[in-house]
Write a structure and sequence with these properties.
24% of the residues lie in helices and 23% in strands. By secondary structure, the protein is α+β, with helices and mostly antiparallel strands. The strands form 3 sheets. Strands 3-4-7-9-8-13-14-12-11-10 form a 10-stranded antiparallel beta sheet, with helices on both faces. A 3-stranded mixed beta sheet has the order 1-2-15. The protein has a two-stranded antiparallel ribbon with strand order 5-6.
């Protein structure tokens, strides 16, 4: 029977409806992305003149490289005053901050799952270094889009870091829920307590290593939605050291289960400004379907593959 579940971290609702997997044309079909064309790859070593100047590189020759996005959503702050045509209806201000590209590897591969563990650890260490470089930002949001269906315009594996001077509403809501949980439990950490309970139950746990826990969220947004959290609560991702090895394991499991690396969106949550209680995490959402009228119109997701079933299948791998 379909079930409405509430995500403990965000408060958002998901309908878990496994019966909808029996609809015509609703299976999980994944086609491998075509190989990167070196001649058209601006992120390849030797093509540095096709991007903005290097902000950070791990050496020469480089294995991970960082530069400003050529088409930024955020730009450094200016003295432009806020534009407020009608204070009750229309409010606008400059989109101030930083928008960086982090090329995860010199090799022309399309997915993090094709990297070695050592290379992914180097990339993740660079994600953390760039977050620390923007310590004054109100919110730091790092993403990886893989595949055209997930919004990747350039196939060569890369991350993007948004350093914003505001805290988005979705993250502010999580901040409030972490704070309320701490008050209600006299200092408990919402994600830490969630991980502890999930490990006790085991039904949605996929894998555990010395640093982190991998699980399918209780109110998964999509089939094979994954959440990676530290075993010991740490507020800021940029201050941590672990997680890359289990992230590599997670991506390899998805690839093995689906027959190819799926188009996916990955993001990193780290402590935003104003949060006294928080814990970092990484979420991975494969794009195995398209959001439709219910999702776009109501904000309620429908997941046709129960997270308990997804966890069991991935765990067996």
């Amino acid at each position: 029977m379909p079930e409405v579940r509430v995500d403990p971290l965000s408060g958002l609702k998901t309908i878990i409806a496994g019966v909808r997997a029996d609809r015509p044309n609703s299976g999980f079909s994944v086609t491998a992305e075509p190989p990167v064309d070196p001649a058209r790859d601006p992120f390849l070593p030797g093509h540095e003149d096709q991007t903005p100047p290097t902000l950070h590189a791990d050496g020469d020759p480089w294995r991970v490289r960082v530069f400003d996005n050529l088409y930024p959503a955020l730009v450094p702050a200016t003295d432009t005053p806020e534009r407020d045509a009608h204070p009750d209806l229309f409010t606008a201000q400059p989109a101030a901050g930083a928008h960086e590209v982090i090329v995860n590897a010199a090799e022309p591969v399309t997915t993090l799952s094709d990297l070695s563990v050592d290379q992914l650890e180097l990339a993740v260490a660079t994600w953390r270094e760039r977050m620390r470089a923007h310590a004054g930002a109100a919110c730091k949001h790092l993403i990886v889009n893989e595949g055209a269906a997930a919004g990747a315009s350039i196939p060569h594996t890369h991350a993007q870091l948004y350093a914003m001077d505001f805290v988005p509403a979705a993250i502010a809501r999580e901040r409030e829920r972490f704070g309320a949980h701490a008050v209600r439990t006299m200092g408990g950490n919402l994600l830490g307590d969630l991980v502890q309970e999930e490990v006790r139950r085991r039904e949605r746990i996929v894998a555990i290593d010395k640093d982190a826990v991998l699980m399918t969220p209780f109110a998964s947004r999509a089939p094979f939605h994954l959440l990676l959290a530290p075993r010991r609560t740490e507020a800021r991702f940029e201050d941590a050291t672990g997680g890359a090895a289990l992230l590599h394991d997670a991506l390899r499991r998805l690839k093995a289960r689906l027959g190819a690396s799926p188009p996916l969106n990955l993001w990193v949550r780290t402590q935003p400004s104003g949060a006294d209680h928080y814990c970092w995490r990484i979420e991975i959402v494969p794009r195995l379907g398209q959001p439709a009228g219910l999702e776009l119109g109501s904000g309620v997701n429908v997941c046709i593959h129960p997270p308990e079933q997804a966890a069991a299948e991935l765990r067996e791998l």
